[in-house]
Design brief:
The N and C termini lie far apart (50 Å). The chain is α/β, with parallel strands linked by helices. The protein has helices at 2-10, 13-19, 27-33, 40-52, 68-74, 80-84, 86-104, 117-121, 128-134, 136-151, 162-167, 187-195, 210-213, 256-267, 291-301, 310-319, and strands at 25-26, 56-60, 63-66, 178-181, 204-208, 223-227, 244-248, 276-281, 283-284, 308-309, 323-329, 336-341.
Length: 343
């Protein structure tokens, strides 16, 4: 289904339909709205699946009306179309290669970030992030997906008490409140800024790779950006003594060994009795994992990473020289905020 959807996105059908104001169209009209020519008879086959999948609605033979979802696909401002391309850019090929990769590696759990199913799938033989860095199209689909995905999650200040965190913070002399490590385009910090409108300028720090923070369009002076590569040899965490170091869906991209290294880098600049590490990620229950949690676990396994149970999170955090304080679930069965500090 997603390959068909991507083909229709590629010819500009949804974009043209949305630009035309939506409304009921027949197949020939939709063919004319598209930027690239697709034979109408072929288009009939494709649209039939889109209707059966509830992406559009069939009204009569070869007649269709859009849904709010299909209109969003055609609206560039939503980023839905490039976000959907993550499936054809990254996910689908890797998923299809998974059985062969497991056979090739004797059905052992992949633990080496540098020998993952993802690397083995594509001719570039690069990791996910290396491949994104080398190809702007792949980076766009990943970035757009992350933005759309984040908007659909419950804001973390709704289930973690950021007010208590702020009450214990010393923000004098420009001291940082929250550092979002690997924070992408800053939506999680924006949610903090919205909840606490009186925060000083620059007290929220967005860290990510230079090419990521260079593309950020911030609408508040409360957030400042810092370019930082977690894996650059000999470079330590540049922001020291912050009240909190926050990471959302970062550690689930990496093996336990690499996650420990990332946490150790942060622990080295924390202030004992003051600084917190806040990991916003999936915590798989010992029984009864949701379909979302289990599916994400199998997805990131293809990058030699994994989602984690409480027991595994405890070990990763302790191996990094930190003490686990408490889990704060989001109430929806998706993610939790894991609070840790120096012992």
């Amino acid at each position: 289904m997603f390959s068909v959807l991507q083909a229709l996105i590629d010819i500009g059908l949804f974009e043209g339909w949305t630009a035309a104001g939506g409304g009921e169209k027949d197949v020939n009209e939709l063919a004319k709205l598209s930027k690239k020519d697709m034979e109408p008879e072929l288009l009939c086959h494709q649209l039939r699946l889109m209707a059966a999948s509830h992406i559009i609605q069939e009204t009569a033979n070869d007649h269709y009306i859009p849904t709010p979802y299909s209109l969003a696909i055609g609206d560039k401002s939503t980023q839905v179309a490039p976000a959907l391309r993550i499936r054809t850019d990254h996910v689908a090929s890797c998923a299809m290669h998974w059985p062969d990769f497991l056979a090739k590696t004797n059905y052992q759990k992949p633990r080496d970030d540098k020998a993952s199913c993802y690397i083995d799938t594509f001719p570039e033989k690069k990791s996910f992030f290396e491949r994104c860095s080398a190809n702007p199209v792949h980076q766009e689909s990943f970035s757009s997906f992350m933005d759309v995905w984040a908007k659909g999650k419950r804001p973390w200040p709704e289930f973690y008490d950021t007010q208590a965190l702020l009450d214990g913070a010393d923000l004098s002399n420009g001291s940082p409140f929250v550092v979002d490590v690997g924070g992408h385009h800053g939506i999680d910090l924006m949610r903090v800024a919205e909840k606490h409108p009186d925060l000083p300028a620059g007290s929220l720090v967005l860290e990510d790779l230079p090419e990521v923070v260079g593309a950020v369009n911030l609408t508040t002076d409360k957030i400042r950006t810092v370019a930082h590569d977690l894996f650059q040899e000999g470079v330590e965490q540049p922001i020291k003594g912050a009240r909190a170091y926050f990471m959302h869906a970062v550690l689930h991209d990496w093996s336990d060994e690499t996650s420990v290294k990332i946490l150790k880098q942060i622990a080295a600049v924390m202030k004992r009795g003051y600084s917190k590490v806040l990991v916003n990620d999936i915590v798989i229950p010992s029984t009864g994992a949701s379909c979302y949690q289990a599916a994400m676990d199998c997805l990131v396994l293809q990058a030699s990473a994994n989602e984690r149970t409480e027991a595994v999170w405890s070990k990763v955090i302790e191996d990094a020289g930190l003490k686990l304080v408490k889990y704060y679930p989001d109430g929806r069965g998706y993610e939790s905020v894991i609070e840790a500090e120096l012992p």
